[in-house]
Hints:
The protein contains four helices and two strands; from the N terminus they run αααββα. The protein is mostly helical. The chain is elongated, with a radius of gyration of 17 Å.
Amino acid sequence: EEKPKINAAELDVFDVEDVTDIGSGEPLFAHFSAEDWAMMSLRFELHLLMHAFKHDLGDPERQTFHERHIAYYYNKYFGKNLSAKSFGQSTYQELIKVLEDTVEIDAKSTLEAQLSEETPLDSFVRLTEDDRRGRPR
């Protein structure tokens, strides 16, 4: 059976049913570069970090942490260093700004998760593809 030809660039990434097949056999992430995979991984890791921190503390009064501690908690949870420069940004604030669909810095300079704990994994593919399409090349 022949798959229909679909122009992936015209599809709304949030309307695609299956990120591994947009309907033509092509995955939504077919045009990801190494940078896109890195950004998707970081999105997912920061999402996990925010929810794990909240869960681990179990304190309704303290569900997040100040943005200046992001590198510390990232290292504590994932055992690796986080560098804004690795993602083409000068500061963590700039890096978080790029990922504001997943995490934001609020008025008190604390990190705030933007997605629910139950967010499906394919959402991170969709967010990354949406971001990739919006970036100048």
